[in-house]
């Protein structure tokens, strides 16, 4: 994996870094697929599959809403097997009828409209889930890359510390430095070695998390395609409302449709029937037809109507809140992204300055013009600057992920 920053011209440092990285990585490295490749397989992730299934369910309900109510058939026999003159079946009247509920008052149209509005909202929620998964994947990818870089930087810091300690021990043997300085140098080496072990554990955990979230069959042991080094492209937001506001608008439309559905359910149920009646006594038959209407005396659906209207008011409140917050959130996210870009540029300049300072300090220490304490301080500044540059790049990725979430798109 290529490093982000330049390196001091120290042969011993390069040798130790190469050895440390070689020992830290398995013999057969499986680099993670590029971020773009992982994005192409978003449809395999459980969150996307769940959102897609919910959308399919909403579309199926919209299709079902168009179905007409089923008719019912009935067969009735009257005036049979009673007392005289209705003994036996000779005077019976047999009626076969078909009844069909009639959806009047616009009930069917209201039901279809509510189901269609819910499907539209489910489609927008599916898109939101997809972009949320893309953002989470980008962040985990960047965190894994940052953990790998921090391990490499810790390995190089160990090599620099060991090189400085070797120089100090040479001076101690020559009697030019106190033995205490050698003990301090060895202590610094052990501390640096502990940091290498810690960052290796963090790197392995980040790689495992990336493999799990991206649903990779092989474990990840390296990242070759950098996401931290990628600067976000300028993005012009859609002229429409942000995706979260669009979802709130769709949910408000659906809530309004459900109010209409519940209101129309309070209307009387009307059923038409048509049948044939046979008169056994006269050996003839005649048509029967009728209509039945329910009387809404006891149940006028008032509770369901009130509940639907309350849900509509809640949807209106959510929409109003999101409209107020959407623009402010996007402006804040854009400001954080701009600040992170500036911070990254400044961190890179700081790395270049501290590398040059360390090169000069090491030359001065070898010549006896710089003390061990000064060299230690400058080396610590170099290590901190390099880690700061990694943190700045990770912050830039986080800012881009947040902005992409608000815009309803995949990061980068």
From TrEMBL:
The keyword Signal applies. InterPro entries: MdtP/NodT-like, OMP_efflux. Coiled coil: none annotated. Keywords: Signal. Residues 1-29 form the signal peptide. GO terms for molecular function: efflux transmembrane transporter activity. Pfam families: OEP (PF02321). Belongs to the outer membrane factor (OMF) (TC 1.B.17) family. PANTHER family: BLR4935 PROTEIN (PTHR30203:SF24), OUTER MEMBRANE CATION EFFLUX PROTEIN (PTHR30203). This is Outer membrane efflux protein. It comes from Thioalkalivibrio sulfidiphilus (strain HL-EbGR7). The lineage of its organism: Bacteria, Pseudomonadati, Pseudomonadota, Gammaproteobacteria, Chromatiales.
């Amino acid at each position: 994996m290529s490093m982000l920053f330049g390196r001091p011209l120290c042969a011993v440092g390069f040798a130790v870094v190469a050895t440390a990285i070689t020992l830290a990585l398995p013999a057969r490295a499986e680099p993670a697929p590029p971020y773009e490749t992982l994005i192409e397989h978003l449809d395999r992730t459980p969150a996307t599959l769940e959102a897609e299934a919910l959308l399919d369910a909403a579309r199926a309900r919209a299709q079902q809403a168009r179905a007409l109510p089923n008719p019912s058939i009935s067969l009735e026999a009257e005036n049979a097997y009673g007392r005289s003159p209705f003994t036996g079946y000779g005077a019976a009247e047999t009626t076969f009828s078909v009844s069909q509920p009639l959806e009047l008052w616009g009930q069917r149209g209201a039901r279809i409209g509510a189901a269609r509005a819910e499907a539209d909202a489910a489609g927008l929620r599916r898109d939101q889930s997809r972009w949320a998964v893309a953002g989470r994947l980008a962040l985990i990818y960047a965190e894994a890359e940052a953990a790998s870089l921090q391990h490499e930087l810790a390995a190089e810091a160990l090599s620099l510390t060991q090189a400085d300690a070797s120089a100090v021990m040479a001076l101690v043997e020559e009697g030019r430095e106190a033995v205490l300085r050698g003990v301090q140098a060895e202590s610094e080496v052990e501390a640096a070695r502990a940091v290498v072990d810690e960052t290796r554990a963090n790197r392995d955990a980040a790689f495992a998390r990336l493999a799990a979230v991206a649903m990779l069959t092989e474990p990840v042991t390296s990242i070759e395609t950098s996401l931290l080094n990628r600067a976000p492209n300028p993005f012009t937001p859609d002229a429409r409302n942000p995706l979260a506001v669009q979802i709130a608008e769709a949910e408000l439309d659906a809530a309004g449709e459900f109010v209409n559905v519940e209101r129309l359910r309070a209307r009387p149920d009307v059923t038409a029937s048509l049948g044939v009646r046979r008169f056994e006594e006269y050996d003839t038959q005649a048509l029967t037809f009728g209509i039945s209407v329910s009387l809404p005396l006891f149940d006028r659906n008032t509770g369901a109507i009130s509940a639907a209207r309350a849900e509509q008011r809640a949807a209106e409140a959510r929409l109003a809140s999101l409209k107020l917050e959407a623009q402010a959130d996007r402006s804040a996210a854009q400001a954080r992204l701009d600040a992170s870009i500036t911070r990254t540029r400044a961190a890179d300049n700081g790395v270049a300055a501290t590398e040059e300072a360390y090169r000069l300090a090491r030359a001065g220490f070898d010549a006896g013009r710089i003390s061990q304490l000064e060299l230690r301080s400058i080396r610590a500044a170099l290590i901190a600057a390099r880690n700061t540059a990694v943190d700045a790049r990770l912050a830039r990725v986080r800012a881009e992920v947040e902005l992409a979430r608000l815009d309803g798109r995949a990061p980068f």
